[in-house]
Specification:
single chain, five-stranded mixed sheet, 8 helices
């Protein structure tokens, strides 16, 4: 039996033009494409008519396929001799579970090519005018998910914290960071739908961002940036200067905020 090929492609933060040349060429050679929800779907229109496209997107509380099912689909089609592409948003190895998919395939005797992509952890803040590092403001950054224990991450305004998949846990993230000593005046930005026509940035401070996010109906997909670099975003100072004290009703509503 002739085994097929497996390629994990990071397709970038959402704009179809931000996939790498290598990634695009590999995509066009696919027989089967397993596409993530956040991968740029416009790229699928360039595929030949006989390519099988399988939607394996995951949304909060709604998984079309579990990770185990995705792993099995990749292997099954490759063992059938197909050229399989796993099309993922961002980078496969940056909180994208690409390592799990590669290891599972290799356990079944299959080789895997990994083509890196532009991670949303860096590119989406950039799309909002926020560099994750900047001289005299931040010389390093940490990337976590909103479901990760934040007990060990650096808590300094001069060390940028980037949170992926963190809208629903925003309140607990803020509570943890402030309890660990990060000043409540630390600026924070939430960038929704990076690189899309509906991209939107909500800027505030740790003290009131939960209320502001609730009022703006912030929702995933979004990247959260915490630290002094947020002040470099266009109009950041206008947003930060407009902050008002929370009233009792706002504070109560903030405690129940979810995406």
């Amino acid at each position: 039996m002739v085994k097929g090929e497996i390629t994990l492609i990071g397709a970038g933060p959402g704009d179809p033009e931000l996939i790498t040349v290598a990634g695009y060429k590999a995509l066009l050679r696919a027989d089967v494409v397993l596409a993530d929800r956040l991968a740029p779907r416009a790229l699928l229109a360039d595929l030949a008519d006989d390519v099988t496209v399988i939607d394996v997107g995951k949304a909060p509380g709604c998984h079309v396929a579990t990770q185990d099912e995705i792993n099995e689909l990749i292997v099954t089609h490759a063992l059938a001799g197909k050229n399989v592409v796993r099309l993922k948003g961002g980078d496969p190895y940056v909180l994208g579970r690409g390592g799990e998919e590669r290891l599972y395939a290799e356990q079944h005797g299959l080789s895997v090519r990994v083509i890196p992509g532009i991670t949303s952890a860096v590119s989406v803040p950039a799309a909002a005018g926020i560099p994750v590092t900047h001289r005299h403001l931040a010389t390093g950054f940490t990337v976590v998910t909103g479901h990760q224990d934040l007990g060990e991450v650096p808590v300094r305004a001069d060390h940028t914290l980037v949170v992926l998949m963190g809208v629903s846990t925003l309140a607990s993230t803020v509570s943890t960071l402030t309890s660990r000593g990060l000043p409540s005046s630390t600026p924070i930005a939430i960038i929704e739908r990076g690189y899309s026509q509906t991209q939107r940035t909500t800027i505030g401070t740790l003290e009131e961002i939960v209320v502001r996010a609730r009022k703006a109906a912030v929702a995933n997909p979004a990247v959260i940036v915490i630290g002094d670099v947020v002040r470099l975003a266009p109009d950041a100072q206008v947003h930060l200067a407009s902050l008002k004290s929370l009233d009792t009703s706002d504070a109560a509503a903030a405690a129940t905020f979810v995406d």
